[in-house]
Amino acid sequence: MTPEQERWAEALAVERAHGEGTLAFIADRARALALQGDGDGVQRWRDIAAKFDELQAARLTIQ
After folding, report:
1. CB 22 within 8 A of CB 55
2. pLDDT in tens, 3-56
3. Is 48 exposed, middle or buried (0-12, 13-18, 19+ CB in 10 A)?
4. Rounded Cα gap, residues 1 and 7, in angstroms
5. Which residues, 6+ apart, have CB-to-CB distance to 4 below 8 Å?
6. Which of 14, 40, 45, 57 could disulfide-link to 30, CB 3.0 to 4.6 Å?
């Protein structure tokens, strides 16, 4: 599995687990990692957020 495929899978898993609260959950994770000084972790969650945004945009296009 490529890193991009992993981000897609993570975005979908987070959405399934958190539904309407997905963006808040992602922001909280990124914020916590930033406070810990984990720049790589923050970037990973930013990438997951980008994939989640793409999912949302695709759904709007389909409707």
Report:
1. no
2. 999 999 999 999 999 999 999 999 999 999 999 999 999 999 999 999 999 999
3. buried
4. 10
5. none
6. 45
